[in-house]
Amino acid sequence: MPNRRISDDLKEAALRLEDRGRDTTKQILKIVQFSKSTLVRARRRKLLTGRVAKAVAHGRGRPRTLAEQDADYLVRLAKHKPTTFLDEYHERLDRYRFLPASLATIHQTFIRARMSLKQVQKMASERSPLNRANYSRRISIYPPDSLLTKSQKMTVLMLASSADQRSGLVSSAHSHSFANGALPE
């Protein structure tokens, strides 16, 4: 009989039968069809609280949604300084609004406000001095003239291709190297 919901009325009836004293505990358990430990728990709860019902579980965990004013505050913060991390928003809510909202709640608030967190988090990570230093260290091994954007590379390829066509020197091997994205020498 594990994991079945036993009504509070049935527990009350079992306790009344026990108080009446006419039946043994075994007979009472046979009548109500639950275990002795359930009867003991019901008796203990009745003595402690005056009721056999469990306490209503309300207010457990963090609130899943923010009040409208708090959500507006978050959106205003994000529009003012979009490079803030979620944990920094969490700290501000906790410090200035005394509201311990979870990171998931803050994230859902931004989604409801139709804000893109991907761009915000990318901008926030780029402002890190350590990330900037790592990028500078990695990029410093390349000579400056080899650092081209994709559009600059396409421009160079198009200019080289048109110059070769004008001079009539286009060969299949040479044009094949351009197709692979190699720069002209």
Automatic annotation (TrEMBL):
Family annotation (InterPro entries): Homeodomain-like_sf (IPR009057)
Superkingdom, natural source: Eukaryota
Protein name per UniProt: Transposase
